[in-house]
Amino acid sequence: MILIIHGNDIESSRNFYFEEKNKLKNPVILNGEGLDFTILYQTVENKSFFDEKIYILIENFFTKNKSTNEEFKKIIEYLNSNKAADIIFWENGEVSKTSLSLLKNASNKNFSLPQNLFAFLDSLKPGNGRYLVESFNENLKKSEPELIFFMIIRQFRIMLNLLLKDLPIDEVKRMAPWQLSKLQNQAEVFGRERLIKLYSLLLNMDLNTKTGKSSLNLKKSIDFFLSDL
């Protein structure tokens, strides 16, 4: 059995991954980034020799390696011919259909966020409060306020990163040039000082909500934040 867990709803995919991990007895966990074929081969073959049931968890193999890499190719070829191990891949992002098709007998579980949530995040701009509040409430029909709030914080963190250029984060490294260009333009509309202020405000909102210091529920807090943009 080979299962690939992926998608842009990273929180949900990670939770599912941990649920699956907790069901397994003594799984072997391997870092997928730069995974060496020999390590994987020896892990599978050694356990097979002793007739043990093998469970291997591999994190970020597809998203952290190029498909043209020789080690990557050897691992894919080996897994397509070997049925001795049960392997679960977890990816910190979405895996392309092309990459998914490389493992012939693998199944995949994709945790994807609604497209209208990304449209909402793209519309985070000064003076756009009325539309943002309406869009936020529309998104609440499909997503929990906690998830939307998490994505708002993430959007501002990435924008701030792009303006300051000294806060390297994995989210930025994984993005395509067109995504970075769009976020760069969005960040410049706010400007450096305002982004710092708004990001600080979001972090305070998060802390006050989690510690019960806010007199407003999370939905109301987000409504006020958006309307004041």
Which key terms come to mind for this protein?
single chain, 229 residues, alpha/beta, Rossmann fold, Zinc Finger, Delta Prime, domain 3, 2 domains, 5-stranded parallel β-sheet, 57% helix, elongated
Write a structural description.
By secondary structure, the chain is of the alpha/beta class. The protein has two domains: 2-110, Rossmann fold; 115-227, Zinc Finger, Delta Prime, domain 3, CATH 1.20.272. The protein has eleven helices and five strands; from the N terminus they run βαβαβαβαβααααααα. It has helices at residues 10-23, 37-49, 70-81, 97-100, 115-122, 129-139, 145-164, 170-173, 177-190, 192-211, 218-227, and strands spanning 2-6, 28-31, 54-59, 85-90, 107-110. It has a five-stranded parallel β-sheet, sandwiched between helices. It is elongated and about 60 Å long. It starts with a strand and ends with a helix. The model has no long low-confidence stretch (mean pLDDT 90).
Task: Give the spatial strand order of the biggest sheet.
Answer: 2-3-4-1-5
Beta content: 5-15%
Q: What order do the SSEs take from the amino end to the carboxyl end, as H and E?
A: EHEHEHEHEHHHHHHH
Q: What is the number of independent domains?
A: 2
SS content category: alpha/beta
Tally of separate helices: 11
Total DSSP E strands: 5
CATH class annotation of the largest domain: Mainly Alpha
State the CATH architecture of the largest domain.
Answer: Up-down Bundle
Fold-level CATH name of the largest domain: Zinc Finger, Delta Prime, domain 3
Whole-angstrom Rg = 21 Å
State the separation between the terminal residues, measured CA to CA: 49 Å
Low-confidence segments, given as residue ranges, are none
The largest sheet, given as strand count, sense and whether it forms a barrel, is: 5 strands, parallel
Helix content: 55-70%
